[in-house]
Structure to design on (762 residues):
């Protein structure tokens, strides 16, 4: 209980002293707002605000743990769903570590069976290995490896939005979500009226779903009675869209492949390794995939499929196709971390450091009793790992652990 | 735009009467609805009737006549189709006109194609990039607006040359997408909510066309689903969702919606569907009932939701991979319908 009050107090402080850091969303009067209120422990939706001042006052008066607004623009944003009058919506993408296989294997996440109490670490199983229960309490952690994986996906996505979809970099807004991922939001006028089906096609594009040239039926069928033309150029890739991405990715793969890599993609012949140059020039450039011994169209397809997985951006598909989605508001606190959702220029993607730049609480300390926490880094300092100990921590670290349910407030 | 504007001639309007310029032509002509009964209007009325009739019979619009008959016969045919108040006729007529336009457009030069595209406010340009052997570059927004309901996988954006927001296309494909615009524009015209008082001649003609259509539709029986739900005809994705639900395993939002809509669509009563979700650990009777009745169209907007098609299920990873029949269909409901039909000779089991 003390912990809950502690969070309330800290969030209240933030919204009454730093609310100028909360920038107004584009056309905010046409958006629906939603809040999770800390005191009432309830979700409030269908709110609307004429200006940012009203909203900032609302934040410091009610102190929500989480603040959302619609990606959609409405005639009457505060009306019930069927009567809002949908005018359009931004094109949004959510990249969350939950949807990406990461090298940490989520070892920092904990799950507890809701039925028998059996607990474990890592990816939550589908059924409890002890009792077969299906409901779990999970404690996740925003780890650096997870966030780096999410960032890599974001880089690929932004590249496609710029080069393939032709959006200007100022039309592509990139945010750290405040927890385990990134949000990308395109507010260009032209995309606002795209319907759900059109957005689904955009999703399929960035995921590389449905690429016909990777499909089962061999596109190079020998015509009956005729000898197959040696090295026909069915498989030359052009320099646009996915073709270009596959070509560049395959080039990289062929140049660097090891025997292990070839086995990973399911190839048994290592002929490619002895003839890298020939494969690059004759097969990849000219598309004559039967011109090098031991290399075939099947080699092409297997590598291409592997490369497609590497080059596609792993996004949460339902977020992009939902025309009424609520998304966390820029400049507000995330209730699970006490970190900010934070915008930064797309060209800074590789250098952006969420554990420095999204820190909201910059002064003071608090003493917390920590049950269990992995090592973590915040504002340039490294903390932990901790196990059943009482520690005095800088405010941001204390808030993070309490928000994540890894610690309780020891004393004020 | 850097090129000289194409001005549509009367020959153009005779071929493409759906263009905005036709309204101008008609205004000059000053034709009034009451005058349609005048004997000198007979050729126009006759041609209009032929347009709709051919659409019903063969998805064509018949042979072109002289411009002064051909052009006004189009708005009259629209009126005639509206007067039938029959959605099958309207749909079919719009499609027939659009198909005719498609076949004509393929013989036009690039400039004329551009002019027709401009009539639909497309953001399109002639391609000047010599490395691409395709004549047109169309904004991906206009491209998506006209392709998302086309089923052939070649229309998927992922299989197109997309660069800098432009999709590169040849003349055939541009004409094909313009066909979609034409159909859409005509369907819009046919939506007219308030009907004028039609002259008797029109009403009689509409009655004849209706009769013709009834013969035609009569053959294509409108199949509903039988009352008994047959689990063994479920497609693999629904089997997986159904099993997961009955074991109380967590389903994604899309998964839950798909299963609910599918079961409601094939005629399972909402109470039965609610029953299925009871084993969920986060089960909430009131909320579940509400959601299911909403999908069934018994609440709120009153529209019954249809379960998503295969491509949507693939996007959201609900599709579990396909069997042989899956590869022939685009919708789980079609799978179910075909499977049911295949088994009509077997003895029904519960
Ligand atoms: Zn258990
Ligand atoms: Zn991790």
């Amino acid at each position: 209980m003390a912990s809950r009050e502690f969070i309330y107090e800290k969030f209240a402080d933030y919204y009454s002293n730093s609310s100028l850091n909360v920038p107004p969303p584009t056309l905010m009067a046409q958006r629906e707002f939603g809040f999770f209120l800390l005191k009432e422990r309830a979700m409030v939706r269908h709110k609307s605000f004429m200006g940012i001042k009203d909203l900032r006052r609302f934040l410091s008066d009610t102190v929500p743990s989480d603040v959302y607004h619609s990606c959609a623009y409405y005639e009457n944003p505060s009306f019930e769903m069927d009567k809002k009058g949908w005018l359009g919506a931004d094109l949004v993408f959510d990249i969350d570590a939950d949807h990406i296989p990461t090298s940490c294997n989520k070892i920092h996440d904990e799950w507890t069976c809701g039925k028998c109490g059996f607990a474990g670490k890592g990816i939550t199983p589908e059924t409890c290995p002890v009792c077969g229960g299906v409901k779990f309490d999970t404690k996740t952690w925003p780890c650096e490896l997870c966030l780096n994986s999410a960032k890599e996906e974001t880089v690929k996505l932004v590249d496609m939005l710029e080069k393939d979809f032709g959006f200007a970099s100022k039309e592509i807004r990139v945010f750290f979500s405040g927890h385990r991922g990134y949000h990308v939001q395109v507010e260009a006028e032209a995309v606002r009226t795209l319907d759900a089906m059109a957005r689904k096609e955009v999703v399929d594009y960035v995921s590389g779903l449905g690429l016909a040239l990777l499909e089962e039926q061999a596109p190079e069928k020998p015509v009956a009675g005729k000898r197959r033309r040696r090295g026909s150029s069915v498989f030359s890739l052009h320099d646009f869209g996915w073709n270009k991405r596959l070509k560049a990715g395959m080039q990289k793969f062929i140049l660097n492949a090891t025997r292990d890599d070839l086995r990973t993609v399911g190839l048994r012949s290592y002929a490619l390794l002895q003839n890298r140059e020939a494969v690059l020039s004759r097969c990849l450039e000219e598309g004559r995939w039967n011109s090098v011994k031991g290399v075939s169209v099947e080699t092409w397809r297997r590598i291409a499929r592997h490369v497609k997985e590497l080059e596609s951006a792993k996004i949460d598909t339902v977020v992009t196709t939902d025309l009424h989605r609520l998304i966390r508001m820029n400049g507000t606190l995330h209730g699970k971390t006490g970190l900010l959702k934070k915008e930064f220029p797309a060209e800074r993607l590789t250098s952006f450091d969420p554990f420095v730049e999204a820190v909201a609480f910059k002064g003071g300390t608090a003493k917390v009793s920590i049950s269990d926490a992995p090592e973590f880094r915040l504002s340039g300092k490294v903390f932990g790992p901790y196990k059943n100990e009482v520690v005095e921590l800088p405010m941001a670290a204390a808030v993070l652990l309490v928000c994540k349910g890894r610690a309780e407030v020891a004393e004020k | 735009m850097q090129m000289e504007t194409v001005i549509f001639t009367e020959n153009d309007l005779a071929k493409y009467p759906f263009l905005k310029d036709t309204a101008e032509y008609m205004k000059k002509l000053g034709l009034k609805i009451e005058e349609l009964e005048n004997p000198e209007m007979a050729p126009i009325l006759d041609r209009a009737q032929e347009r709709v009739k051919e659409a019903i019979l063969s998805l064509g619009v018949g042979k072109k006549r002289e411009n002064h008959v051909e052009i006004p016969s189009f708005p009259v045919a629209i009126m005639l189709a509206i007067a039938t108040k029959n959605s099958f006729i309207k749909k079919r007529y719009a499609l027939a006109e659009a198909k005719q336009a498609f076949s004509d457009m393929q013989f036009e030069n690039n400039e004329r194609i551009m002019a027709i595209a401009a009539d639909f406010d497309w953001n399109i340009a002639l391609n000047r990039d010599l490395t691409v052997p395709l004549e047109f570059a169309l904004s991906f927004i206009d491209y998506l607006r006209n392709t998302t309901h086309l089923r052939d996988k070649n229309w998927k954006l992922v299989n197109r040359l997309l660069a800098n927001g432009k999709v590169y296309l040849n003349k055939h494909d541009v004409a094909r997408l313009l066909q979609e615009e034409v159909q859409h524009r005509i369907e819009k015209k046919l939506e007219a909510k308030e009907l004028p008082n039609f002259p008797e001649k029109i009403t009689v003609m509409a009655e004849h066309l209706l009769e013709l259509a009834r013969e035609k539709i009569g053959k294509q029986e409108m199949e509903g689903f039988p009352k008994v739900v047959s689990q063994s005809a479920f497609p693999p994705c629904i089997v997986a969702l159904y099993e997961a639900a009955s074991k109380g395993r967590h389903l994604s939002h899309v998964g839950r919606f798909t299963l609910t809509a599918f079961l409601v669509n094939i005629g399972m009563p909402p109470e039965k569907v609610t029953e299925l979700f009871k084993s969920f650990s986060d089960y909430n009777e009131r909320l579940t009932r509400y959601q299911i009745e909403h999908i069934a169209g018994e609440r709120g907007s009153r529209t019954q939701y249809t379960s998503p098609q295969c491509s949507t299920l693939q996007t959201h990873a609900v599709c579990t991979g396909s069997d042989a029949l899956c590869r022939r269909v685009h919708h789980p409901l079609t799978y179910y319908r075909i499977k049911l039909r295949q088994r009509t000779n077997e003895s029904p089991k519960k």
Notes: Residues 219-223 of chain B have pLDDT under 50 and may be disordered. Chain B touches chain A at residues 131-132, 139-141, 144-145, 147-149, 153-154, 156-166, 168, 247-250, 252-254, 281-282, 300-301, 311-312, 314-317 (CB under 8 Å). The domain at 231-346 of chain B is CATH 1.10.579 (DNA Cyclobutane Dipyrimidine Photolyase, subunit A; domain 3).
